[in-house]
Design a protein that fits this description.
single chain, 210 residues, mainly alpha, 76% helix, elongated
Length: 210
């Protein structure tokens, strides 16, 4: 079997084991057995448990970002682009629960260098969503009214909400990717659309004094 294929086979087993057992509880023996190879071969190809986990994070992060980008069709209206991107995000996380568990639950909780790898993925998603929101603003002829910092803040909020919603939806029976995407669109786009139309929320005088 070619080395690249064998490595992917081992990483598939590693993602499943790390996702279901957790980084600390997972053992190289379990991963080797699931992959159908010897433990020395796992070490030969991927050096250590830490390097194997890092490789899994990078692979799953790249796959998620690629899925979101591939799901968005250039040239369509801004709300359609956001809808397609969210559907792609939730579909991918639902279809790859172990990979999502590695990214969302395991890598974030074990410090450097794992958390840094996830932070890089999140930054790439935020950059892409920032572009989508900026495109929506230009489409509505209000890009000059939305400060760069405000657009970036909206993108961070939207990505954070998507991550949280995926964690909830994937653990709740019967919730589909389409339903999660619609939930977030109803929550976020209505506000974004008002913002594009110059309708900004402001606290009432009573709320501002509270």
């Amino acid at each position: 079997m070619p080395r690249a294929v064998r490595e992917q086979q081992m990483m598939d087993a590693a993602v499943q084991t790390f996702g279901q057992r957790g980084y600390r509880a997972a053992s190289m023996d379990e991963i080797a057995e699931l992959a159908g190879v010897s433990k020395p071969l796992v070490y030969l190809y991927l050096n250590s448990k830490e390097e194997l986990f890092t490789a899994c994070i990078r692979r799953e992060a790249s796959a998620l970002v690629a899925a979101v980008r591939a799901g968005v069709e250039p040239g369509v209206p801004a709300d359609r682009q956001l809808w397609d991107g969210l559907r792609a995000f939730f579909t991918h996380t639902a279809e790859n629960p172990d990979g999502w568990a590695v990214l969302q639950n395991q890598a974030r909780t074990h410090g450097e260098p794992f958390a840094d790898e996830v932070a890089a993925m999140r930054a790439e998603l935020v950059t892409f969503v920032t572009y989508l929101i900026g495109s929506a603003a230009r489409e509505a002829d209000c890009d000059s009214e939305l400060a760069e910092r405000e657009v970036a803040g909206l993108a961070h909020a939207l990505v954070g909400a998507a991550e949280s919603l995926a964690g909830w939806g994937n653990g709740t029976p019967g919730v589909s990717a389409k339903e999660m995407a619609a939930t977030l669109m109803n929550f976020a786009w209505a506000g974004l659309e008002n913002l594009m139309n110059g309708q900004r929320w402001a606290p009432s005088s009573r709320a501002s004094r509270a």
